[in-house]
User: Fold this.
Amino acid sequence: MDSIFSRIIRGEVPCHKVGEDDRFLAFLDINPVRVGHSLVIPKLEVDKFFDLPPDVLAGIMPFAQGVANRIAAVVPCNRIGVSVVGLEVPHAHMHLIPIDSIFDMDFSRTKLKMAQAELAALADRIRNA
Assistant:
């Protein structure tokens, strides 16, 4: 399996990183439902989220918590919503989405169009929060 996320991890496809350590990577979604919408992925290539080894599954939430706290510090919102859908890319991942209502988690909504410069500036603010 060689998903787009695996190519991002290897640096073959650019992304707007908002967090990274030796096991996980977080980056802005390029088709966000809300400003600050980010994806958190394990660097281990596994298709289904709940097929992740227990230690990776246990580690992803503390990593995501740090990313979510930085997003919330930069993007005005009531809270950060979490969603694990996993149908778009065959690589385990979770969505972190700044929300003010449940409707902000609706993936059927029209996605935002953000310029690369906007995404880069936002990623920089989140990383440095």
Summary: The beta strands are 17-20, 24-28, 38-42, 79-83, 94-99. The longest strand covers residues 94-99.
